[in-house]
Amino acid sequence: MGKAAAREATVLWIIAFAAIALTRAIGPISGYAKAVAAVAFLYLPGMIVWRRDEDYRDYGATLVGWRRGLLWGLGLSLAVLPIFTVGFFGFVHLLQNLPSWLSGVLAPYPADASFQLRLPDRFLAHLVDQFLVVALPEELFYRGYMQSRLRDAWPGGRTLWGARLGKAFWVTAVLFAVGHLAEPHPWRLGVFFPALAFGWLREKTGTIVPGIIFHALSNLTVLVLEASFFGPR
């Protein structure tokens, strides 16, 4: 069963990655890559659940205990995102003092930056987009389906702050980061680090709800910081 679970998860990841990368590579439809990703991340696990007559709750897609999940998602956001914001200031300063070729590897930002607190254009649309089109599908696929199936293949692990983290946790985080290379820029691999928090929340609470909240709020924080440093985009 273990090898079959790992093989199934890997095949679905390859299908999703190929669909997103191919869409992005074809100029006339490249703008639909995000929509293709959302559909793939929702449909592929759903196909498995339907075919095997399983329960979405087996993959953490449940609102049972949603208040606890909400508190964990908001609590971790309040603890981590202010620290991230301070780090972002330092990161922007660092980029301004690096050679242009190196700063272009680390981030997609222009050399000139000055801070003025601003919201990105169409912030309410971004709010809906980050929760429903980005965070929900990605958390369902990666932390819900993939981390669960890989845990079936590789049970066990060490407990960290009340969450058992094993090989499935680490491999899911790596695949999440590599999956972002459908847009082939080295700085996209930086999502490996928040993926560790998303995966920990899944193991700690048994649901993807807190991961969705923390994921969306993290992305929105980045959007606000980018607009504040580099202007609305």
How would you describe this protein?
The chain is mostly helical and 233 residues long. It is built from eight helices and two strands, in the order H-H-H-H-H-E-E-H-H-H. The model has no long low-confidence stretch (mean pLDDT 94). The N and C termini lie far apart (48 Å). The chain has one domain. Strands 1-2 form a two-stranded antiparallel sheet. Helix content is 69%, strand content 3%.
List the helices and strands and how they pair.
Layout: H1 2-25, H2 33-51, H3 66-95, H4 100-106, H5 123-153, E1 158-160, E2 163-165, H6 167-179, H7 192-205, H8 209-230
Antiparallel strand pairs: 1-2
Helix pairs in contact: 1-2, 1-5, 2-5, 3-8, 5-6, 5-8, 6-7, 7-8
| Count of separate DSSP helical elements | 8
Estimated share of beta-strand residues: under 5%
Helix residue percentage = 55-70%
Mean pLDDT, nearest integer?
A: 94
Low-confidence stretches: none
By secondary-structure content and strand pairing, the structural class works out as mainly alpha
Largest sheet: 2 strands, antiparallel
Strand order of the largest sheet: 1-2
Number of strand elements? 2
How far the N terminus sits from the C terminus, by CA atoms, comes to 48 Å
Order of SSEs, N→C?
HHHHHEEHHH
Silhouette = globular
Number of self-contained structural domains:
1
Task: Provide the gyration radius in Å.
Answer: 18 Å
